[in-house]
From TrEMBL:
Lineage of origin: Eukaryota, Fungi, Dikarya, Basidiomycota, Agaricomycotina
UniProt region (Disordered), positions on chain: 25-121
Primary location recorded for the protein, binned into one broad class: nucleus
Residues passing through the membrane, by range: none
Biased composition (Basic and acidic residues): 36-50, 97-106
Single Gene Ontology BP annotation: negative regulation of gene expression
Cited SMART domains: EXOIII
Native source species: Kockovaella imperatae
Entry's localization field: Nucleus
UniProt xrefs under InterPro entries: REX1-like_exo (IPR034922), REXO1/3/4-like (IPR047021), Ribonucl_H (IPR013520), RNaseH-like_sf (IPR012337), RNaseH_sf (IPR036397)
Gene3D superfamilies (alphabetical): Ribonuclease H-like superfamily/Ribonuclease H (3.30.420.10)
Protein name per the record: Exonuclease domain-containing protein
The family this protein is said to belong to: Belongs to the REXO1/REXO3 family.
């Protein structure tokens, strides 16, 4: 059918070696001959050598219609042809094979014809404005770009030596930002003028991170952040109203810094062989550090809190860790552990408390707080605890300044055997404390390098941290007290809930495998306090 109608008579046969007697395609040039011709031609290299070429309407033609160059002539290609080659080099190199000139004319050895090297690589293009979907003409946009570039060059003059592309980058971004927000040329010209005037009025930057660097939006956002940081900057005067009064230390279960009995003790650091009640499953046991691996599973407990919920019209108490009801078997297994809780007298027997003033006096720093550059006015602190044969013990302490810079992050060497590293809450894993250098006494002294008698310590549930550190201090800000629970003390709102509500981001998202981060928690408490300072000042 196709053969008689001739529908494919004008199309070349796709088979290079077609031998069909009645093929429907055109065989004006035999496939075998085409194949041989392709093989005979030399491959085109990156640099095309042209010995004699004429230009006719943008196509390469034979030299038979052109004047032949004389042997030894220095000009084998006319000037206009050379220019055309330079402009159309990529096209010619990709579509036409090399065209050979006629062989030697006359007697003797012919002089080699001069070669014209055509480089198909394009020269580096100058950055230009992208006109895709642009509502403004190119000439107007280029003029606006030049205006912005001049102003940015003047603004960045002190920085151009080390950052030569800064003005170029800012001008391009500002022009693109302006063009994208202007529907017509009139508003575009007005916006460019406004942007140029705004740039010319900025304060000269002294670094690439200065708020004056960048487009209008970037600079505005940087200045707003700077104002926000200045408004939330924590000073003793600003945070004085949030200090926990001494008469409320007992209400919020803080150790009393005025209790002199807590300053003596340390005669019972270990409780091995003594009967205790497990703080997890509430069963009695004898404290021992022997056969810990084989004893795993002796304690079944719930690590989550129990909260009331209404299910199917009935009020039930549900564990947050596994959604089981009160009274059901625990969802976790481990070994029996204990803690002395908020019994400061027992804690003092394990290790005596000290005030910040005492530590300073022992280190010979009394009266030098105003001269010390390391002492901060306001610090955030968080501690991580583990279970040992001496109860709940300090394993890690982190101190940060109000900018979030970590001043101290130290692990604590344990003087007694460890029962449970408490990874879910401490963020520590077995073996991490093996290389710890400082004991509790040394870590407490290191904390007081940055915390003076007049420094303000900020934390969330800070009473546990102070007890673990055996440190007494009267200038305390607890974010759990400035954002109290609806039911009042001793209930406290979780830090992660406060951060989510006030700051809009999440912390403590992977406590199941990574545990808490003391640095993250310490920074979060300071950010929550800054939010409170800004909110009250507004």
């Amino acid at each position: 059918m196709f053969r008689s109608l001739g529908l494919f008579a004008s199309a070349l046969c796709p088979d290079p070696s077609c031998h069909r007697p009645k093929c429907m395609f055109n065989h004006g040039e035999s496939s075998r001959k085409r194949k041989e011709t392709v093989e005979e031609k030399e491959p085109v290299t990156g640099h095309e050598t042209v010995k004699s070429l004429g230009i006719n309407g943008g196509r390469a033609t034979s030299t038979s219609s052109q004047a032949q160059p004389k042997p030894g002539s220095s000009k084998a290609v006319p000037t206009n042809a050379a220019n055309s080659l330079g402009h159309h080099a990529p096209v010619l190199a990709s579509k036409k094979p090399r065209v050979e000139a006629d062989e030697t004319k006359g007697k003797g050895t012919p002089a080699a014809a001069p070669e014209v090297i055509v480089n198909p690589m394009r020269p580096p293009s100058i950055p230009t404005i992208n006109l895709k979907l642009s509502p403004q003409p190119y000439a107007d946009r280029q003029k606006g770009l030049q205006t912005l570039f001049q102003q940015y060059t003047k603004l960045y003059r002190p920085l151009l030596t080390e950052h030569p592309d800064l003005a170029h980058t800012s001008a391009l971004r500002q022009e693109a930002e302006t063009s994208s927000t202007c529907p017509n040329i009139k508003t575009y010209k007005s916006a460019i003028h406004h942007a140029a005037v705004s740039v010319s009025r900025r304060a000269a930057p002294d670094s690439p991170t200065h708020p004056s660097v960048g487009t209008l939006k970037e600079s505005r956002a940087a200045y707003e952040k700077l104002e926000k940081d200045l408004a939330g900057r924590l000073t003793k005067e600003k945070v004085a109203q949030y200090l926990l009064p001494l008469d409320q230390f007992k209400i919020w279960a803080y150790p009393d810094p005025r209790n002199q009995d807590l300053l003596n003790g340390g005669d019972e650091p270990d409780c091995q062989g003594i009967h205790q009640t497990c703080s997890r499953c509430k069963k009695p046991f004898v404290v021992s550090s022997k056969y810990l691996q084989s004893r795993s599973g002796e304690c079944q407990f719930h690590y989550g809190k129990i909260q009331p919920e209404r299910i199917e019209g009935k009020r039930k108490w549900i564990y947050t860790c596994c959604r089981r009801e009160r009274g059901e078997a625990g969802c976790e297994e481990g070994i029996h552990v204990f803690t002395d809780g908020d019994d400061d007298a027992k804690l003092a027997k394990r290790k005596a408390f000290k005030t910040v003033q005492q530590v300073w006096e022992e280190r010979g720093q009394a009266g030098t707080e105003a001269k010390s550059k390391k002492v901060a006015d306001v610090v955030g602190m968080d501690c991580e605890m583990i279970y040992t044969t001496g109860g709940s013990s300090l394993a890690r302490v982190t101190v940060v300044d109000q900018s979030g810079v970590i001043l101290l992050d130290e692990k604590v060497r344990q003087p007694v055997p460890i029962l449970d590293i408490n990874t879910r809450f401490s963020g520590l894993h077995p073996g991490e404390l093996d290389d710890a250098v400082m004991d509790l006494e040394a870590v407490r002294s290191a904390v007081c390098v940055f915390v003076g008698p007049e420094s303000v310590i900020v934390g969330h549930g800070l009473e546990n941290d102070l007890r673990a550190l055996r440190l007494l201090h009267d200038k305390i800000i607890d974010t759990a007290t400035i954002f109290p629970h609806d039911k009042g003390p001793p209930y406290r709102r979780a830090l992660r809930d406060l951060v989510k509500e006030k700051l809009g981001y999440f912390i403590q998202e992977r406590t199941a495998d990574l545990g808490h981060s003391s640095a993250e928690d310490a920074k979060a408490t300071l950010e929550v306090l800054k939010w409170k300072v800004r909110d009250d000042a507004a």
